[in-house]
Amino acid sequence: LQRSPLWCNASVLVGTFLGNCIARCALPATQVIMEINDQNLAALSSSLEQTLSPDPHTRKQAEGFLRNAELQAGFLQLVLHLIATESVQPPIRTAGAVLFKNTVKRHWAGDEDGPSKLLESDKEQVKGALVNLMLSCPPLVRRQISEALSIVAECDFPAKWPTLLPELIQRLGSNDLSTIIGVLETAHSIFKSYRHQFKSDTLYIEIKFVLDSFQSPMLELFKALLQQIDPNGGNKDVLTLVFEALLLLCRIFYSLNWQDLPEFFEDHMKEYMDGFLMLLRYENQLLLTDDDDTDPGCLIRVKAAVCENINLYEEKYEEECQVRVASANLGR
User: Fold this and answer.
1) How many helical (H) and strand (E) elements, i.e. helices and strands, does the chain have?
2) Any idea which of 60-64, 287-291, 292-296, 326-330 has the lowest mean pLDDT?
3) Among 129, 143, 142, 76, which Cα is nearest to 107's?
4) What is the rounded CA–CA span in Å between residue 60 and residue 273?
5) Of the candidates 175, 301, 174, which has an alpha carbon nearest to the alpha carbon of residue 248?
6) Among 7, 24, 244, 250, which residue's beta carbon has the most beta carbons within 10 A?
7) What is the pTM for the complete model shown?
8) Cα–Cα distances in Å, from 215 out to 153, 221, 243, 286, 328?
9) CA 233, 235, 236, 241 torsion-angle sign
10) Quick check: 169 and 213 in contact, CB under 8 A?
11) Per residue in 160-196, pLDDT tens?
């Protein structure tokens, strides 16, 4: 079969892209750099487009090209640059995000054969770009970048990524609920590991590091979101975002209180319990599950998360919270 001009042009670009990668492999590590330029971006875009081809041979060839390129210095930055480019077609941006996540999963922490083969300088540049990229991408891309960020955080936070938490906290001050939700999703993905780890000095030092920075803005955000409920009672879109953010805050509350009862949360227990009581009593038809939808609505999920938090306190911190829970008249 005769190949189309489009396929021929794409093959030339990909061939050049791979040829550059192979040629650079002979250079010392300090000189192996995949520059961000139009030629490399076009070749990367073409390769990603071919991974979406219905033809198995085309897909396999393109995936092989990308696997040969993924350890080259500058490759991850090139992928992130393409993902951040709004003029790139959405399927290609999403494919790039999946490629980035999978490359991070394979190589960031190293494996049984040795440490990570990614350059530390590349890692630092990637970490410097991840939060901003995640918060500025469309939902499908954001989901992949968020997963990649969680993998990086699991390996590097907080010792090798001390700037992550301050950057997230700064974004909590945004007036954009979607941005706030993105930040909370990231925080939740990091903090939920505290629920399953064995007690250790290292773990408690990390949790204290998180609490010292995060606990105050978290409480302020919780109270601010509660104040947005009544004014937006008839606005389903805004109200849904408010409750999505509240759901994430409830889950973060659970994670940060799982190992032990932090002093700050004990001191501000009444504020949280009053807010939880308000959420348990709140009703709004706009947030209920549709008749043809089997998934619970966001209001039901928030109430379930609130109950989990209250149960956690009653089971683990009964003595500390008994008086406060009773005063909140939760009737439990």
Assistant:
1) 15, 0
2) 326-330
3) 76
4) 55
5) 301
6) 250
7) 0.84
8) 19, 10, 19, 31, 22
9) negative
10) yes
11) 999 999 999 999 999 999 999 999 999 999 999 999 9
